[in-house]
Amino acid sequence: MVRNQPISGNDLARFSGPNTFMRLPFANDLKGLDVAILGVPMDIGTSWRSGTRFGPKQVRSESAMIRPYNLQTGAAPFDSLQVADIGDLAINTFSLTDSLRIIEESYEAVLNYDVIPVAIGGDHSITLPILRGIAKRHGPVALVHVDAHADVNDEMFGEKETHGTVFRRAHEEGLITASKTYQIGLRGTGYSAEDFTEAQGWGFQQFLAPDLWGRDLSTLGAEIRRDIGDLPVYISYDIDSLDPAFAPGTGTPEIGGLTTPQAMQLIRSFKGLNVVGCDLVEVSPPYDTSGNTALTAANILYELLCILPGVTYR
Fold first, then answer.
1. Does any domain span residue 49?
2. Is residue 51 part of a domain?
3. Strands 312-313 and 75-76: what pairing?
4. What is the pTM of this model?
């Protein structure tokens, strides 16, 4: 079987070609795909700095530099998986409620195929309808949530579905397994002491960023992997989990975050998990004109591709 490969920089200059993730082929038909990469260009669910509607386009642009073989881990995802970029979901930029409906229905359609969806956000509110679609296919899933914020508010400005309420709704709706939910990198300030502790009472396992400073996260990742076992798992990676020194282009930055080497250690240690979907959210290009945040996000997405089920290692 001939599998899709990113366009080589030796065949076509990296500053040209299609604006797909890693310059992979674009696909309208999901038949035969193992992995579908899609964009959700939305920022109407955010509460502070906007701009994540430009995230998918910029992440794709910065991904043009990434080559197909992972020299550090030996992963060669495109040798064993059929991967394509299926473009952006046509959200309603004037209505958050309608956009969340569109995302959920789109995921239901995508998951009619035996495919792992990988989403480029967009603000974190996109993860709730994604999990609704995932749960209809796989049932309640284990969740690895890497973020500066727990996103377990009950409401924001009276709204129940925003980027800060995602995982309370997911818990209430039975989309995730509370005892197999891991929130990594939490920090900053809160409205009350219950901002974090309430979710701990539901069974969420939380790992605060200060406890991770200077630590190799491979061990933590291995512990989580053993705890999850063979259960289906969804990974949601908020770019603001990283310190703003590494990723300033985000809507709600918090100092004292993870480093990029820690992010790579963590993701690589998840090799062997039964990942059924993942996302990378909250990249806001207007707040980082260097493009470095989107470049970092693109590489994190590539690392996620490298640990999906069925990836070949050389």
1. yes
2. yes
3. antiparallel
4. 0.96
